[in-house]
Amino acid sequence: MGLLVRVIPCLDVNAGRVVKGTQFKELRDAGDPVELAALYDREGADEIVFYDITASHEKRNTAVDLARDASEEVFIPYTIGGGVRSADDMRAMLRAGADKVSINSQAVRTPDIIDAGAERFGSQCVVLSVDVKRKESGAGWLVYLNGGRVNTGLDAVEWLVEGERRGAGEYVLNSMDSDGMETGYDLELISAVSERTSLPVIASGGAGHPDHMIAAVEAGASAVLAASIFHYGEYTIREVKDHLQKAGVPVR
Predict the structure, then answer these.
(1) DSSP 3-state of 58
(2) Exactly one of 52, 131, 179, 186 is catalytic; which is it?
(3) Domains along the chain with CATH numbers
(4) How far apart are CA 56 and CA 129, in angstroms?
(5) Is 69 a catalytic residue?
(6) I need a surface site. Which of 13, 93, 141, 211 has the fewest CB within 10 A?
(7) Are 51 and 13 in contact (CB under 8 A)?
(8) For the chain, what is the largest distance between any 2 Cα atoms, rounded to a whole number of angstroms?
(9) Residues near 58 by Cβ (< 8 Å), separated by ≥ 6?
(10) Which residues pair with 173 in a beta bridge?
(11) What is the pTM of this model?
(12) What SS3 state is found at 226?
């Protein structure tokens, strides 16, 4: 048996509330981030991921307060991202209680932040998150920044290969095409990244049923991240884990 597959709820935070939309649009309120994370902790989530989804676009400070508040109520590992601009920002989040820090937009603009974070805190603390869209030709994917607002023109797979070389510890691989659609993850994308790198891949974007998670693991994901199906009561963490376990997927 290999490593246990992690089930990870994702909490996108905007103005202090958890929100969820479709392809980064039409955001709906889903509750208080710390209360929701604490609920998922009690339900058996393996980790939590918080994203301040407008921090980079609005050039706001990092979500240190959220990291600190979560440390009082959440007792499983959690990652926080959004508006991280330097290794000092990463340090502030880690000191406030986060176990890992996710970097996205700033990593593309200043790739040295990956090296600096890995050197100062260890690769295990550095999560490279990437929002990608399939190219219009259908062959490959491009990296987008600032909550999907900016097309960088960067090839997503090549960028993640560089991220591994610079010292990232794992990836959150988010398909913007599938985000919020609940039609399944982009399995071709997961396979393409898994074949080119050795880091754990957290599949993101598209989960609508536990079967989608099984398919993601079969495509090469080490963990499955979901939002809508948990936030709006379609499935509990336990139901998902039971389903995966019955299918032979090793979970906690």
Answers:
(1) coil
(2) 131
(3) 6-246 (3.20.20.70)
(4) 13
(5) no
(6) 211
(7) yes
(8) 47
(9) none
(10) 130, 203
(11) 0.93
(12) strand
Q: Which of 12, 46, 52, 89 is catalytic?
A: 12
Of 132, 182, 127, give the one whose Cα is nearest residue 157. 132
Q: Which two tokens stand for residue 60?
A: 């706001």
Is 12 an active-site residue? yes
The two structure tokens encoding residue 151? 């097309």
DSSP letter string over the chain? Answer: --SPBEEEEEEEEETTEEEEEETTEEEEEEE-HHHHHHHHHHHT-S-EEEEETTTTTTTPPP-HHHHHHHHHH--S-EEEESS--SHHHHHHHHHHT-SEEEE-HHHHH-THHHHHHHHHH-GGGEEEEEEEEE-TTSSSEEEEETTTTEEEEEEHHHHHHHHHHHT--EEEEEETTTTTT-S---HHHHHHHHHH--S-EEEES---SHHHHHHHHHHT-SEEEESHHHHTTS--HHHHHHHHHHTT--B-
Asked if residue 130 has pLDDT above 60, the reply is yes
Instruction: For residue range 138-193, list pLDDT tens digits in order.
Output: 899 999 997 788 999 999 999 999 999 999 999 999 999 998 889 999 999 999 99
Q: Tokens 């240190």 appear where?
A: 64
Residue 36: both structure tokens together? 């929701």
- Residue 137 pLDDT more than 50? yes
Cα-Cα-Cα-Cα torsion 58, 77, 127, 169, nearest 10 degrees, comes to 170
